[in-house]
Amino acid sequence: MQQRMDISQAAPQGYQAVIGLEKYVRANVDPTLLHLIKLRASVVNGCAFCVDMHSTEALKDGEQGRRLFAVSAWRESPFFSEVERAALELTDEVTALGEHGVTDQVWAAAQDAFSDKELADIILAISTINVWNRVAVSTHLQPPAL
């Protein structure tokens, strides 16, 4: 598969706007939680570039490989805290909005796990990785060769 377009070159101002969101979430969301959110949304969206990038970054930052592998089956995995589970469930529902939106049950669990500010920042993090996933998948952005 060949990359179709480099959006950073075709629409540099738009690309920089997304970079601004990325900088915000990196500064405001716990790094471990952010890695899990980015990886989970990327798995759900089938974004090979982002799965590669975010798993590689998480490993560099000290995350355990077993937890990263388990993100694809997090519901059945014992490796995640209740707070991480709330974030992963919210990630699944925000990423797949067309199926049923965010259910009241998932929202309540997220409200129990996070302050309003933390929850707002997590929603922005989920939204941002979904933008990146859509850019990468639609343009056929490929991970670097092994």
Automatic annotation (TrEMBL):
Pfam families per UniProt: CMD
Domain Carboxymuconolactone decarboxylase-like: 15-93
Domain of life: Bacteria
SUPFAM superfamilies tied to this protein: AhpD-like
Transmembrane segments: none
PANTHER family: 4-CARBOXYMUCONOLACTONE DECARBOXYLASE FAMILY PROTEIN (AFU_ORTHOLOGUE AFUA_6G11590) (PTHR34846), CYTOPLASMIC PROTEIN (PTHR34846:SF10)
The protein's name: Carboxymuconolactone decarboxylase family protein
Organismal lineage: Bacteria, Bacillati, Actinomycetota, Actinomycetes, Kitasatosporales
